[in-house]
Amino acid sequence: MDLGIKGRRALVLASSRGLGRGIAIALASEGVDVLLCGRNADELAANCATINADGQGRASFVVADLFDDAVVDTLANAVAEKLGGIDILVNNSGGPTPGSSEDMTPETLQTYFNAMVLRQITLANRFLPQMKAQRWGRVLTVASSGVIEPIPGLALSNTLRPALAGWSKTLATEVAEYGITANMLLPGSIFTDRLKSLDAAAAERSGLSVEAVRAESEQAIPARRYGTVEEFAATAAFLCSERASYVTGSIVRCDGGAARSV
């Protein structure tokens, strides 16, 4: 299927590795020019080289940290310089540290709220006037299955990610008439470095091996396996596409059927 987005321009947050990297590659394979960002210049440069060697959409990058107070200006300036404008914003961030509700201090909450919620909303607001003027845009927010089913041991994530869900749904109703969609994409157990670290932490807490923890986790998923980054990224690319123009205000799960809610 031709997704109808060749020549579009996308900023993909937190795309040096993991899900963000996968989404940038998937979009570029559809002919989208992508701007990657993250904290590791070497990883970003390698990702861009991989994408540009494919010969479809072009890739460039900017070193930027979502914990930095100046990151919104940094990214907005890079979009103007490297892309000349924007059509697709993929909101994404690394997950916060694991822990319980009692582990959350006011300082920790504020720090992660700024990086995971405030700056993503502020970025969208920065780009919405252009999307409205061209009457086309996509705002895709990658979050966590904890939005609909809180994950034990991830109190910070379970607290902050749902704020983005409320915002995304509200935004969708406000901008639909301009040809702009706003959706959320929730990963289940996708085999990334983040999932590996969570499995390792679970193994340490339980006294089991990492392999045993993974096998137990996979048995709890109806698909009986972890998902791949490529599967997740393909779903993201569709939600950013012309073909998904009538999909907005939605929360889409890519989790192998793991969430038990309707």
Task: Give descriptors for this structure.
single chain, alpha/beta, 2 domains, 8 helices, 7 strands
Structure commentary:
It is a single chain. The chain has a seven-stranded parallel β-sheet, sandwiched between helices. The longest helix is centred in the middle third of the chain and has 29 residues, at 106-134. The protein has helices spanning 18-29, 41-54, 71-83, 106-134, 155-175, 193-206, 210-219, 229-239; strands at 9-12, 33-38, 59-63, 88-91, 137-142, 180-187, 251-254. The chain is of the alpha/beta class.
Strand arrangement, major sheet: 3-2-1-4-5-6-7
Q: What is the strand content? A: 5-15%
- Unreliable stretches covering 5 or more consecutive residues: none
What is the CATH third-level topology name of the largest domain? Rossmann fold
Count of alpha/pi helices: 8
The tally of beta strands, per DSSP, is 7
Radius of gyration, CA atoms, in whole angstroms: 18 Å
Q: How are the SSEs placed, and which strands pair?
A:
Blueprint: E1 9-12, H1 18-29, E2 33-38, H2 41-54, E3 59-63, H3 71-83, E4 88-91, H4 106-134, E5 137-142, H5 155-175, E6 180-187, H6 193-206, H7 210-219, H8 229-239, E7 251-254
Parallel strand pairs: 1-2, 1-4, 2-3, 4-5, 5-6, 6-7
Helix pairs in contact: 1-2, 1-8, 3-4, 4-5, 6-7
